[in-house]
């Protein structure tokens, strides 16, 4: 899963990226210090894997991962090439979802590209550049479809939805705000529009502002806007995340307690990403390896098996499945689980659930 971190210059984007990936991307107090997108891979925390690893004395533990792309700061006019904007917009096109870092703190020592702190203005600037870029794409597609319509009247439905999207964009609204049928949503997704990508607004607050973020008027404004388009909001202090990144696990918990918060910004961001993209994890466990696999919620057993290996999907017979909690109740003993009837034999139509521990039987 690839997530792109975007935002105006100097909102804490690269500082946050450095903290959550420890990748050392340059973080400087001037615009465009990031030109090529820095890429960092982070593991998705999952306590279940640790429990299963200890239970089976597994030789290897493999967590699922998220790739974060730190994309250079966008500015007004990016869709027209301002600030190397076209290159940056191209990088956004490659990600599954956008993490839009919005500045929600006051600091006279950190310049703001517009000279003042106004989260809604910042959001509007970024969203409008994505919308303008999409309008260029749609304009070309509408012209092509209109031309082809003369020889193929079946394209009328496609032309109608293209014009419907364009009308929404012309109102200054993102494509993701549209209420679409399942069929139309699949078509719009195929257009790869920037403003249709799911988005998480990351409210970057001051170091001492995480615990009482609900009282921050900037955070409140961001949440109110996000609600209008059904987007997620995560409150993070990039400065706090930088400090956490340097600590051992035990020290991290103590540090978080001192700040009055119960989990790191990275953990919150990962949870929000899974929720936004409607993802779950199923598990495989044994002495050689304990591993988490990420699939779309609603995936059937053969699709999930295909994540492990394409042959598993092609030759899928059935999946021996047990819920993680039930396996733990049996102390990880599969024989006990079978005696209690807790291991299920699931076929091709089974919908995989979060925390399923699966053993796939296949024949190619």
Provide a count of the helices. Answer: 14
Q: Kindly report the average pLDDT value.
A: 86
DSSP strand (E) fraction? 15-25%
Q: What letter string, H or E per element, gives the SSE order?
A: EHEHEEHEHHHEHEHHHEEHHEHHEE
Q: Can you give the helix content as a percent range?
A: 40-55%
Looking across the biggest beta sheet, what order are the strands in? 2-4-1-5-6-7
Structural class: alpha/beta
**Gap between N and C termini:** 28 Å
Q: What's the count of strands?
A: 12
Largest sheet: 6 strands, mixed
Low-confidence stretches: 23-36, 81-85
Radius of gyration: 23 Å
> Shape from CA axes?
flat
Topology:
Layout: E1 2-6, H1 13-21, E2 38-43, H2 47-56, E3 61-62, E4 65-70, H3 85-92, E5 97-103, H4 119-149, H5 156-170, H6 182-190, E6 199-204, H7 217-229, E7 232-236, H8 238-244, H9 249-259, H10 265-277, E8 279-284, E9 290-296, H11 301-308, H12 310-314, E10 316-323, H13 324-329, H14 334-339, E11 344-346, E12 356-362
Helix pairs in contact: 1-8, 4-5
Tags for this entry?
three-stranded mixed sheet; flat; 19% strand; 14 helices; six-stranded mixed sheet
């Amino acid at each position: 899963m690839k997530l792109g971190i975007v935002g105006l210059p100097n909102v804490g984007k690269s500082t946050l990226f450095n903290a959550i990936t420890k990748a050392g991307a340059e973080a400087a107090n001037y615009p465009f210090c990031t030109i090529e997108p820095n890429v960092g891979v982070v593991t998705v925390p999952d306590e279940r894997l640790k429990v299963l690893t200890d239970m089976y004395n597994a030789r290897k533990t493999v967590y699922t991962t998220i790739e974060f792309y730190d994309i250079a700061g966008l500015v007004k006019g990016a869709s027209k090439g301002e600030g190397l904007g076209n290159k940056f917009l191209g990088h956004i096109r490659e990600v599954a979802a956008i993490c839009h870092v919005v500045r929600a703190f006051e600091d006279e020592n950190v310049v703001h590209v517009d000279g003042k702190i106004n989260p809604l203005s910042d959001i509007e600037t970024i969203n409008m550049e994505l919308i303008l870029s999409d309008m260029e794409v749609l304009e070309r597609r509408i012209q092509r479809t209109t031309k082809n319509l003369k020889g193929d009247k079946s394209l009328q439905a496609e032309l109608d939805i293209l014009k419907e999207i364009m009308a929404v964009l012309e109102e200054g609204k993102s494509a993701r705000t549209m209420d679409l049928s399942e069929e139309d949503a699949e078509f719009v997704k195929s257009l790869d529009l920037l403003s249709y990508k799911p988005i998480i607004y990351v409210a970057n607050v001051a170091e001492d502002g995480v615990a009482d973020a609900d009282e921050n008027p900037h955070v409140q404004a961001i949440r109110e806007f996000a609600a209008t388009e059904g987007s997620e909001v995560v409150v993070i202090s990039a400065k706090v995340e930088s400090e956490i990144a340097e600590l051992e696990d035990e020290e991290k918990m103590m540090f978080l307690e001192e700040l009055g918060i119960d989990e790191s910004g990275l953990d919150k961001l990962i949870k929000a990403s899974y929720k936004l993209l409607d993802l779950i994890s199923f598990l495989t466990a044994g002495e050689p390896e304990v591993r988490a696999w990420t699939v779309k919620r609603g995936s059937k057993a053969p699709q999930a098996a295909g994540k492990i290996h394409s042959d598993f999907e092609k030759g899928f017979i059935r999946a021996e499945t047990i819920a993680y909690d039930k396996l733990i109740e049996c102390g990880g003993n599969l024989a006990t689980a079978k005696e209690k009837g807790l291991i299920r034999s699931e076929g091709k139509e089974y919908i995989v659930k979060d925390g399923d521990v699966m053993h796939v039987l296949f024949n190619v």
